[in-house]
Amino acid sequence: MRRVYATPEQLTAWTGKPAPDDAERQLARASEDVDTALLTAWYVTDAAGMPTDPAIVQALANAVCAQVEYRQASGDDGTGAAGRWGSVSIGPVTLGDRRDAPQAAGGVDLGPRAERALTLAGLLPGVIT
Hints:
Strand order of the largest sheet: 1-2
Helix content: 40-55%
Shape: globular
Oligomer: single chain
Strand content: 5-15%
Number of strands: 2
Largest sheet: 2 strands, antiparallel
Structural class: mainly alpha
Number of helices: 4
């Protein structure tokens, strides 16, 4: 079962704008990004894999909302392709370049505010000692 850490209502509160029509899909994809970034993080969960500590619950909701906001700002439709390629055209000549940003744990393109929410909650860097 897919874990989703934030609701459309939380997204509306985070962004200050009405949630988009496909908010549930965007929140699910952002939750996948957060899960990928937290592959080595340790926190207590229930039988469904959801966190039980209220501070962790809030941090994950904040990170997911921040990730949706980041994707929207970068023009990403959830495929991860937006912002990775740039191009310049001059007449009939087109030049393309790759714009890969530094990746978070698991190779996910995690937005800065999402990463900050997870770091402040002690979930990143996710080192097990």
